[in-house]
Amino acid sequence: MSFPIHKTEQEWQAELQAKGAEPAAFQVTRHAATERPFTGRYEQFWADGSYHCICCGAKLFDSDTKFDAGCGWPSFDRAIPGAITEIVDRSHGMVRTETVCSQCGAHLGHVFPDGPSDTGLRYCMNSASLEFEPPKA
Ligand SMILES: [Zn+2]
Q: Is residue 117 pLDDT above 80, yes or no?
């Protein structure tokens, strides 16, 4: 799969470091690692604003779609249309739906069909993949 934004591993690493991303951000976004639950900076974070891809800045979620799923990762019931690309993930002996940034291919987390709201979806994201932005004044 190819994405509009392409950079080398070294370039992503430098960029994430320059942005002050969480230490796990590179492994999570470029190597599909999963941060430990209940450790991410946005797991219990409820300010108004929007969540963007830590790698390329694309807007992924609005804060009013965020809910507490109790699973230890930031969870959302709706993504910005077109912002996220879904990929079937058969790793770890499960069939899951991986979610990646449509612009740069950054691994974000997984989406599950067991959400509590009318969308029926639960986007289970890594904090390390996200960058919060307060609303523009
Ligand atoms: Zn991105």
A: yes
Among the options 53, 55, 104, 124, which is catalytic? 124
CA distance 31 to 33: 6
CATH topology of domain 7-131: 2.170.150
In whole angstroms, give the CA distance from residue 72 to residue 36: 8
Domain parsing of the chain, residue ranges: 7-131
The predicted pLDDT at position 136 comes to: 82
Task: Judge whether 104 counts as a catalytic residue.
Answer: no
| Residue type at 1 in one-letter notation | M
Q: Give the Å distance between the CA of 95 and the centre of ligand 1.
A: 24
pLDDT tens digits, one per residue of 14-65: 999 999 999 999 999 999 999 999 999 999 999 999 999 999 999 999 999 9
Distance 134 CA to ligand 1 centre (A): 18
CA of 57 to the centre of ligand 1 (A): 6
pTM of the complete model beyond 0.70: yes
Q: What is the distance in A from the centroid of ligand 1 to the CA of 102? A: 7
Within a 10 A sphere around the Cβ of 136, how many other Cβ atoms?
A: 6
